[in-house]
Amino acid sequence: MPFIRPAGELLRGSLLAHGLMAPEELDGAEREARRFGVAPGAVLLSRGMVAQADYFDRLSMATGIPRLGLDALRAAVAALDAEEAEAAARSGMVPLWPSGQGPGHAAAIADPGAARAAGGDVCALVTPDELRWAVQAEHGVAFAARASGWLAGEEPALSAHRRTTVAQRAAMAAMGLAGLAGLLVAPAVTAIAANILCALFFLAVSALRLTVLACRRGTLPPDPPLPDDRALPVYTILVPLFREAAILPHLAAALRELDYPPEKLDIKILLEEDDTDSRRAAAALDLPPWFECLVVPRGEPQTKPRALNYGLRFAHGEFVVIYDAEDAPEPDQLRKAVAAFRAAPGDVACFQARLSFYNPDENWLTRQFTVEYASLFDLMLPVMADLDLPVPLGGTSNHFRADTLRKVLAWDPWNVTEDADLGLRLARSGWRVGMLASTTYEEANCRLGNWIRQRSRWIKGWMQTWFVHMRSPVRLWRELGATGFFATQALVGGIVVSGLAHPLFLAVIAADALGGILFAGVDRSWLVATLAASSILVLVTGYGCVLAAGYAALGEREGLRRLRRAVPAMPLYWLLVSLGAWHALWQFIRKPFYWEKTEHAVSAQFHGTHED
Prior knowledge:
Distance between the termini: 43 Å
Largest sheet: 8 strands, mixed
Oligomer: single chain
């Protein structure tokens, strides 16, 4: 496809005459444009071969379409409402007159012919940077407010903006009073009832693991063929960052390794307004043109999902993927995701890539963390997806159909595990999640304090998620069905309750072994024996399922089979999980929306690999 006909030769001549390009560069751009199915101008701009202002000045001369001044552009954008401004940011076309009062759009795309094909009469030209600046200047605050209140405003029953409902608080108060009265009137019966209730959640998790082990496939189906370059769509990558200046060079390098045409990449680095260190670090990196840094205006809550909602307003892609600061996705992951979406039924809204660690052998904690991740991403989630059960997403490498993501109102900014919540909301809306045969490598937390902070945030978010989705158990049952309902109770509620109850079961067993010290004054002959027997049954079953899942999951990856020797220590690791669970409970009560920051780039392997 040549430049815009009949102005193509004029544009080419103008670029050459002003010394902006060499003839061989323009010839190469045209060849690449034919290869990828884009305008040659898109190649020139995306690869930084010509500055935006220079290109659009020459395009204006070649086509006779004037450049729009910044004041006029800002006035035109200011006249739009928030939805129209979002549409302009995503399409690159700004209406210059109210509907029906005049023709014409300002276009911020490399080929105004594409704007005409989309229904716009191009009467002025602006650069992409100018358009983004105008939209952020006039609507950034409104976009940020929308990012905070989108789900809470339209589906308040599905948002964690309210920690609990009046009915839930009343039910918890009633249970607390009943438990207190029971301890005063019939302590033995009350203790057994509490033990049984906790045991049910604990055993539900074990039952889910057993189901997964029984249903896992022996062989995986072949991957669908990768699409050719012309068939690849625009792909948006959202990367929310907060206090990540040290890891930004690693992130930029990892994203540059992606095997995807730059002309079809829409990478948005989302930086918080008050994070001046990360903003300076990003500015110093001299990122290529297909990277774009968006500053998220100050506001509450200051969370990752709020930043994602803000970035989604500017997303151009047919598909959207989320990456975290420390991520290193396999280079062909985007191509595999496109192939998977093209081959999947239309009700598959998301593909979750598998997650693993690049530093599994750093210390005891990283080995146990790797076993846990393998159990989840190589075993549990793939089988749950095969069984059409609700899949709580991981916090990164979620690939979405962009239009579907907007239909379900994207992420809940008030939930600190927005990923798990979104997976459940997709299932409740009738959408399915698949697993992608591609891995993103992360940094395994190697410091205990940092790991506890990360784990407590995760479990606090699962508490939020459980309370949100259990506001109406009848509605949840109706939307998920019986199997989906019980799977949700097992995975979300079960993980939380088992984390809290694990040390209590051990305490009961220890009390029985030590002679019933904790139950002096009551008939130990049956109470402690009953509680201890129940606790032993629960823990033996739970430990057995965890160990079996760990061994099975590590067998899925040849490079991780050596870690099977770490599996027997998983019960000790789950005691650390319990420590995080109790810290999460305290935070859920005191600071439900506080985002406990995980420090990255602390691994010795990271510093050994990324030395200057």
